[in-house]
Amino acid sequence: MASYFKANWDDLIPIPQDDGPEPLTPISYDKEYSEAMSYFRAVALKDERSERALDLTEKIIRHNPAHYTIWHYRQQILFSLEKDLYKELDFITDQVIDNPKNYQLWHHRQVVVEKLNDSSKELPFIKEILSSDSKNYHAWTYRQWIIKTYNLWDKELAFVDKLLDDDVRNNSAWNQRYFIIFFNSNEPSEELLAQEVQYGINKILLAPNNISPWNYVKGIIAKSKEQDISVLEGLCKELEEQSIISYHALGCLVDIYESRAKRGSIEDKNLGIKTCELLAEKHDNIRKKYWEYRKQVLI
Amino acid sequence: MEKTFNRSKTIQYFKRCLDLLPNNYTSNDTHRMTLTFFALSGLDLLGVLETEIPKERRDQWVNWIYAQQILPDENNPEINEKICGFRGSPFSGLPFNPNGSRVSNLPFDAANLAMTYTALACLLILGDDLSRVDRHAIINALKYLQKENGSFTQTYLGMECDMRFIYCACVISYILNDFSGINVEKAVDYIKKSQSYDYGVGQGPGEESHGGSTYCAISSLYLLNRLDEGLLSKNQTIFWLLSRQITGFQGRANKPPDTCYSFWIGASLKILDSFEFIDFKQNFDFLMETQTKYGGFSKWPEYPADVMHTYLGVAGLSLMKVPELQELDPVLNISFHAKERLKTSVIFNNN
């Protein structure tokens, strides 16, 4: 490594980091990182945009992929030298595979794709990253940006269908489903919303204690002019008749009973109290104090 | 056997972090200030910062923090007004100066909102009176960091913008007692639009509800005095938060519990006056499972400790009023004791 710097950077005097007499939380840097940073300070001071500077940014990034100043410098060099940005995408792909939760990398990819104005490689790339962690928040944030910016809504529902077939508890995929329906420029038809409610109910029946489709169906109902909570009441009763215990179903019933009790129904008041007791004592014991509070509200 | 909180090992862990962090923290080099904040605030919550660290060393630390401040250029303040605030570490290569720097050595150098927030918090924790903080420069720089959609980005260079940096901007404005750098209507609008169909909050509109972004949203609304208007349904958001308790807390639906959410979710509930609904014992027991043999807390049981999860684990315990821990302000994420110092700061009273 020493020979690398000697061979390429002989004309520059490296600038070391001055951490003062009593540094806070100093980091035990690798010698190579410290040295590369010292040359970076010297070369950036001149704002040199060269092959060797590009190479230097790569060396630093391998030690510290979160160094946003280095990424910014690298972008300036790439654009000034008119480098092949498709090669840069390949470099980023390798980096993201090693550091899938690094904000700076995902942002750098966005900058490069915007410059290329070509999104054709993006959905396959994100799919690859999601294949090793289907709930990676960064990947989903980026995916939403790509879909909105480049109008790639067409095949997204099929993609989400597949993810939910693989794992019905993938809340990120459920969120993406909602995003597809409500964040594109077309207002969803009531027919589509009815289909989505039914889709969610079918998934609830597969795993009644999975919170994600419960939230999804409630979210769709809240946006619909025709669907209302009684659809879920039917489902809750159906589960009850089959002796299937779902604390989400019971919680949903508490909401329904409470709204009718407020309008004066004694029967619903009593059903609500009984359901709160069941949740507090038996089926959702970790939220015991919450259900006791909900019971007090009903009384 | 029931596990108990190991105070002395936790104190030793934070002290080790302040002395030297191992090599695997290199990827945190640009945001060292946040690591400093975790360790200092940790010792403060344990009530031992003054007894464990000599005064001279604490004064030197105050100097180190001020050395990261970028101040306006003396001759022409406009040329660097957009980059004023605090850096996370001295990576830009300037000589150490406890009064901060007015020049930048790097063409790509700039302050960072998260670093400015944690630097101000660290100064309060260390008992500094903020007299060397350039309040006007920091508030002025905020204006260049807010986006059209109301969110903030962390540095002027342009990076991702999301809920985290609205929170940083709000805490900075609170500590400096000046909200004129924030377009409040736009910020509140962004927070409203980022509430999901399940009444948690995502990092931005359309994104999945997340414990961290929900905390940032609720704290920001609190500091902006817009909590009632900004939350679409306070009761539903409380239920979303409570639903995250599994044993400890998860950050998103159907994810495993993780130490840090005992703070992010716990503090959110505290701000909404609903912390008492959680199951204290299960939360405590989960945190004891992530407490490591050598001191410090990890993200998940059987994982190595790190400074962020250690701090947020201790903060989570403080919320539950575990004995011998200082009480924590859930919004600013510093002890009430440190927050009290604002009243004696030069800046807060000089409006």
UniProtKB/TrEMBL annotation, chain A:
Keyword list, A-Z: Magnesium, Prenyltransferase, Repeat, Transferase
Organism the protein comes from: Diversispora epigaea
Cofactor(s) recorded in Swiss-Prot or TrEMBL: Mg(2+)
Protein name: Protein farnesyltransferase/geranylgeranyltransferase type-1 subunit alpha
Domain of life: Eukaryota
InterPro entries per record: Prenyl_trans_a
GO MF annotation list: CAAX-protein geranylgeranyltransferase activity; protein farnesyltransferase activity
Any single GO CC term annotated in Swiss-Prot or TrEMBL for this entry: CAAX-protein geranylgeranyltransferase complex
TrEMBL record, chain B:
InterPro entries the record matches: GGTase_I_beta (IPR041960), PGGT1B-like (IPR045089), Prenyltrans (IPR001330), Terpenoid_cyclase/PrenylTrfase (IPR008930)
Segments passing through the bilayer: none
Top-level taxon of the source organism: Eukaryota
Residue span(s) of domain Prenyltransferase alpha-alpha toroid: 5-334
Cofactor(s) demanded: Mg(2+); Zn(2+)
Record bears the keyword ATP-binding: no
Pfam family, one: Prenyltrans
The protein's Enzyme Commission number: 2.5.1.59
Enzyme type, top EC level: transferase
GO molecular function: CAAX-protein geranylgeranyltransferase activity; metal ion binding
GO cellular-component term (any): CAAX-protein geranylgeranyltransferase complex
Key words of the record: Magnesium, Metal-binding, Prenyltransferase, Repeat, Transferase, Zinc
Membership in a protein family: Belongs to the protein prenyltransferase subunit beta family.
Assembly: Heterodimer of FNTA and PGGT1B. PGGT1B mediates interaction with substrate peptides.
Protein's name according to its UniProt entry: Geranylgeranyl transferase type-1 subunit beta
Annotated organism of origin: Diversispora epigaea
